[in-house]
Specification:
By secondary structure, the chain is of the alpha/beta class. The protein has one domain: P-loop containing nucleotide triphosphate hydrolases (Rossmann fold), CATH 3.40.50.300. The chain has a 5-stranded parallel sheet with strand order 2-3-1-4-5. α7 runs parallel beside α10. The longest helix has 22 residues. It is globular.
């Protein structure tokens, strides 16, 4: 049987993927996963010699036609996930929602602090704290990857080794926030659907509450901006998007 799932919102964390998932779930043209972030292709407990695709597909409505998808933003970052996606469905279409990597890192850190998973200051995390990621298996870490998840061009290059460019749509998260209707129509055209009306309401993009006076320091932002500059130049060449 052909794979039921034919598109994924595969990145990035803190880039607006929850809003995009909710917009798509409200549109009857889409058969979206019953849960946001199925975390199937990044599940290291799965026997990937014989993955349980039936359990994965059971998370989706049983519809014969039309786009069927889910949003798990770690897929772009988690290297084995991309190969697993290609093995499941070589024709998979992938939507990438990219946010300014500096602001993404800051928002990611704020989330982990609010969750209680992070106790160290942002300045330490983006400098000395990167050693925690380097020491993790395969140099990847689900929680502390504040800096590493922002190297978008490197991740996109890996994705394009597995999927042709026609199967990849790259959007800016600020475009979704500014004009949800226009961004959603780009997704609809990408998935061979006619354009539709704009959402009846806009979803708020709200981050976790933090103590007053806690702001991103200019020196931290500048350090990250310089670190990302070579990758950002490659992203501009690959996708026509730059955050520099």
């Amino acid at each position: 049987m052909s794979p039921r799932v034919n598109f994924l919102v595969a990145g990035v964390q803190k880039g607006g993927t929850t809003a995009l998932h909710l917009y798509l779930a409200e549109d009857p043209a889409f058969a979206m996963c019953r849960v946001k972030e199925a975390h199937f292709f990044d599940d290291e407990r799965q026997d990937w010699r014989a993955p349980d695709y039936a359990a994965y597909e059971a998370l989706f409505p049983r519809r014969p036609d039309g786009p069927c998808g889910e949003a798990t933003p770690i897929y772009l970052y988690w290297r084995p996930a991309l190969e697993r996606i290609a093995a499941y469905n070589p024709a998979m279409r992938l939507v990438l929602l990219l946010r300014d990597p500096v602001q993404r890192a800051w928002s990611h850190w704020r989330m982990e602090v609010a969750r209680g998973a992070e106790t160290r200051p942002f300045a330490w995390c983006i400098r000395e704290g990167r050693a925690r990621v380097a020491a993790a298996p395969e140099g990847q870490h689900r929680v502390f990857s504040y800096v590493e998840r922002g190297f978008y061009a490197a991740q996109l290059e890996r994705l394009l080794e597995l999927f042709p460019p026609r199967q990849v749509l790259v959007l800016r998260s600020d475009a979704l926030k500014a004009d949800p209707g226009a961004a959603l129509n780009r997704v609809r055209r990408f998935l061979d659907l006619p354009e539709g009306p704009a959402p009846s309401h806009r979803l708020a993009h709200v981050g976790p509450a933090m103590p007053l006076g806690l702001e991103l320091r200019a020196e931290d932002a500048d350090e990250l901006r310089a670190l990302y500059a070579p990758d950002d130049a490659r992203l501009a060449a690959l996708a026509g998007i730059s955050f520099g």
